[in-house]
Amino acid sequence: MIQLQNVTAGYGGPPVLRDVTLDLCPGEVLALLGPNGCGKSTLLRAAAGLQPLSGGQVLVDGTPVSALTRRQLAQTVAYLPQSRGVPNITAYRMVLHGRFPYLSYPRRYRPEDHAAARRALEEVEAAQLAPLPVPTLSGGQRQKVYLAMALAQDTPVILLDEPTAYLDVAAQLEVTALARRLAGQGRAVALVLHDLPLALGGADRVALLGAGRLAGLGRPEELFASGALDRVFGVSVRRVKTPEGWQYYCVSCG
Fold first, then answer.
1. The CATH number of the domain where 46 resides is what?
2. I need a surface site. Which of 12, 38, 153, 173 has the fewest CB within 10 A?
3. Residue 230 belongs to a domain
């Protein structure tokens, strides 16, 4: 479990994230929602131990993140940022980078590392991309490879910042289904999404940020009933009952 306790963070100017308290729990998919610039990415970076704090603390299984070595942290938390570099290596070698936290110097991949990489590529349905150079892949294909790299890290906590970027509708649904499978394995999964219906339909809980503060936290139906989504986004969120459960959609308030 990761606990953010009264976390405040920023980048030298006014805080981007202000006094946020939030738990990332095993067996749960947590969707982070909010307008652009509200602090979602900063929150993930803080949870991953990558963002200096100006207030509060982050605990990993009760231990302050500052007390963990980089290796210990990387064996606990996998973090996929919004954008990454595009090295001139094959997709398979890129996925193998997820195994770095388990290797000693000099890095020599073991059979279990190769097995983890192959398993991760299959999990995201990208095994066919393994021999292809990363620069030749489409944006959606690269995103799948980066997802596989995060999975190959084999951590109990997975943090994904806009993992559905560049993906078509079918692939976006695959990502949310993957998040549910990972949570079913007992992992804590947190992901930033901009698609409200996708997030509300696939998350166990939703953390809603507005102007750097936590504007709402709870199950999707609780956030819907509170009206907080409408207030923060300036839209009208509605829903209909289907055989698969509640389906959410948005309409303009204007």
1. 3.40.50.300
2. 12
3. no
Q: Is the pLDDT of residue 253 over 70?
A: no
Residue 118: CB atoms within 10 Å: 17
pLDDT at 8 over 70: yes
Relative to beta strand 157-161, strand 77-80 is: parallel
Is 59 a domain residue?
Answer: yes
Residue 57 falls inside a structural domain: yes
Domain count for the chain: 1
CA 143/CA 137 separation, integer angstroms: 9
| Biggest alpha carbon–alpha carbon distance for the chain | 60
- Taking only the tens place, the pLDDT of each residue in 119-141 is 999 999 999 999 999 999 998 89
Closest CA to 160 of 199, 127, 117: 199
β-bridge mates for residue 248, sequence order: 239
Domain hosting 42: range is 2-218
Residue 253 within a domain: no
Structural contact between residues 228 and 53, judged by C-beta atoms closer than 8 angstroms: no
Question: End-to-end CA distance of the chain, in Å?
Answer: 41
